[in-house]
């Protein structure tokens, strides 16, 4: 089936001439016949753009036109695409084989048809992947452009990460060696080879971008979970202050009986510039000013070394990832508590056994801080017991001397 230019131009003119009527039909779902639009509706119905609805004087957009508008309007709203690359590869292989047979029979019309089918299939696959990656990257990197809360943002990024991992599995179905086999045809026309080579290059670029996006998503998801813990603690403190508006923090730094742990320093006195009123600095400042006045000629700038430096083309050395030493020790301490099946594990004994170089007080603070950062399901498994000196006069604070961990 072939169409001439006038038929296509006439169809486009009908769409352009009834733009507001079609927009109203798409938004409202239906359009009713009136004296002012009867001729336009009859013309659009004959062209296959409108169809009758349940009522005789009511019309809707045909399915093809509605799907076209949906695709053009919603292509940048969702990144999850139903892409079956395995099926796409089989379709392209069949079209290439049909195109080859048409060329051998010198059937130019059929060959042109199959070539357009190959071009459309490859273009739509790459376009779907490109749209999916760009919209997904915009969704995960925007602060709250698509959602309104931190929890929703975490759920959104978790869903995006799951979709990206499924997309990686889908991309693994494509073997580029099979795509290169499409070029093994001895007398392959240049127009077909250009389309295949462009598809291979774009596919490689998409795989590289998807790998970097997955790594970025994992980092952002970890950061958001840390922010969620901070937000939960801040929300709990705000709720406490709303329930107890009379509460005020006590200033223990001025009391003589307060232990050293609860004392606060006097703070830093910051100055935006040099204090010219300071008598200690006045003599030096006067000497600097007089020396500047005695200079008749300004100091010449030092000569610049304009010699060319050879470009270092050596590959940079790979830097291995180093974990925090004490974070690893704390994880080992928690793992030891889980392995001992209900028996207590002493944090101080672990500190002494490993010969850690930090002070015992700092080690206990780090253990307690890491325990507070554990998820709720982990804290319900490991019980933490603190032993120390109660400071009854200071709102129930304690000076901790020992921490015991036990599996519940």
Automatic annotation (TrEMBL):
The protein, known as: Uncharacterized protein
């Amino acid at each position: 089936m072939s169409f001439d230019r006038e038929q296509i131009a006439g169809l486009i003119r009908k769409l352009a001439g009834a733009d507001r009527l079609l927009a109203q039909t798409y938004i409202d779902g239906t359009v009713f016949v009136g004296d002012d639009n009867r001729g336009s509706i009859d013309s659009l119905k004959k062209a296959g753009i409108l169809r009758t609805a349940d009522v005789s004087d009511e019309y809707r957009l045909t399915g093809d036109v509605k799907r076209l508008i949906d695709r053009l309007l919603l292509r940048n709203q969702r990144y999850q695409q139903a892409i079956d690359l395995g099926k796409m590869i089989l379709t392209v292989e069949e079209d290439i084989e049909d195109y080859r047979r048409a060329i051998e029979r010198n059937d130019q019309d059929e060959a042109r048809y199959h070539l357009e089918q190959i071009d459309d299939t490859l273009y739509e696959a790459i376009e779907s992947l490109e749209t999916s990656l760009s919209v997904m990257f915009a969704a995960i990197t925007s602060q709250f452009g698509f959602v309104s809360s931190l929890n929703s943002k975490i759920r959104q990024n978790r869903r995006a990460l799951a979709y990206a991992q499924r997309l990686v599995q889908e991309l693994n179905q494509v073997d580029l060696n099979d795509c290169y086999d499409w070029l093994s045809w001895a007398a392959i026309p240049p127009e077909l080879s250009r389309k295949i080579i462009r598809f291979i290059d774009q596919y490689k670029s998409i795989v590289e971008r998807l790998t970097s996006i997955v790594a970025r998503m994992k980092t952002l998801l970890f950061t958001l979970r840390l922010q969620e813990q901070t937000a939960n603690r801040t929300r709990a403190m705000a709720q406490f202050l709303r329930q107890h508006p009379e509460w005020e923090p006590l200033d223990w730094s001025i009391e003589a009986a307060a232990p050293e742990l609860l004392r606060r320093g006097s703070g830093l006195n910051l100055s935006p510039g040099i204090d010219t009123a300071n008598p200690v600095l006045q003599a030096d400042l006067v000497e600097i000013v007089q020396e500047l006045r005695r200079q008749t000629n300004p100091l010449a700038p030092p000569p610049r070394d304009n010699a060319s430096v050879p470009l270092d083309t050596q590959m940079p050395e790979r830097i291995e990832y180093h974990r925090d030493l004490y974070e690893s020790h704390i994880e080992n301490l928690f793992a030891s508590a889980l392995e001992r099946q209900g028996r207590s594990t002493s944090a101080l004994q672990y500190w002494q056994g490993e010969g850690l170089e930090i002070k015992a007080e700092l080690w206990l603070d780090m253990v307690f801080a890491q325990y507070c950062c554990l998820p709720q399901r982990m804290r319900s498994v490991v019980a933490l017991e603190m032993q120390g000196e109660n400071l009854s006069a200071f709102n129930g604070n304690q000076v901790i001397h020992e921490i015991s961990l036990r599996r519940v």
